[in-house]
């Protein structure tokens, strides 16, 4: 083997993860169930979902601690959500459709993202393949250039209707360095002051 050949190849994202799948995202605290399209970006940096309003939420693959499906996934406690998913009927297939993604900065401060697929066993396949991306050695031991690429990938996924990156997204990406972001945008002769401006 040549010294120039990488020993570890980057994680391979299966095509169905990039194409996405329809799920219902639910939350016990707000008792809201919303239809979403769940996807993983082609490079395997983010798990993200798009609401019908086109609003997107991102979850860094590095922040995922576990994925659960079936009887190990979180179950709705609120009666309103139980009614939405017909959980109290004997022939209900809810357990075959569940997916819970557990994320957080450590193993104590955790957030549970709960999804229900429209088809049986989809949650199981997604849980296994997302966890495979999470556990890939290069996911946790990425190079500096990979972190820069992650920033670029996320910014490019949030284009406005004109196909441009909104300026506010730069500020959201680097909230602690507002002055440095303004200086960098100014040095590139890009708009920096207007919140609605785009690159």
UniProtKB/TrEMBL annotation:
Q: Which domain of life is it from?
A: Eukaryota
Instruction: Give the PLC-beta PH domain ranges.
Output: 13-141
Domain Phosphoinositide phospholipase C beta 1-4-like EF-hand: where? 148-194
Q: Which InterPro entries match?
A: EF-hand-dom_pair, PLC-beta_PH, PLCB1-4-like_EFh
* Name of the protein in its database record: Phospholipase C beta 2
List the source organism.
Answer: Macaca nemestrina
């Amino acid at each position: 083997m040549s010294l120039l050949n990488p020993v570890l190849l980057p994680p391979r994202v299966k095509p169905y993860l990039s194409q996405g799948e329809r799920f219902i995202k639910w939350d016990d605290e707000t008792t809201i169930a919303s239809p979403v399209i769940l996807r993983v970006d082609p490079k395997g940096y983010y798990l993200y979902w798009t609401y019908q309003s086109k609003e997107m939420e991102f979850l860094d693959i590095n922040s995922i601690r576990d994925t659960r499906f079936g009887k190990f996934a979180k179950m709705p406690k609120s009666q309103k959500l139980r009614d939405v998913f017909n959980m109290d009927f004997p022939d209900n297939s809810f357990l075959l459709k569940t997916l819970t993604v557990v994320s957080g900065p450590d193993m104590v401060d955790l957030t549970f993202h709960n999804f229900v697929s429209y088809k049986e066993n989809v949650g199981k396949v997604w849980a296994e393949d997302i966890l495979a991306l999470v556990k890939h050695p290069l996911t946790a031991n990425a190079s500096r250039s990979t972190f820069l690429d992650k920033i670029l990938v996320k910014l490019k996924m949030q284009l406005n209707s004109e196909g441009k990156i909104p300026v506010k997204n730069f500020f959201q990406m680097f909230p602690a360095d507002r002055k440095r972001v303004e200086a960098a945008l100014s040095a590139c002769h890009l708009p920096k002051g207007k919140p609605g401006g785009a690159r």
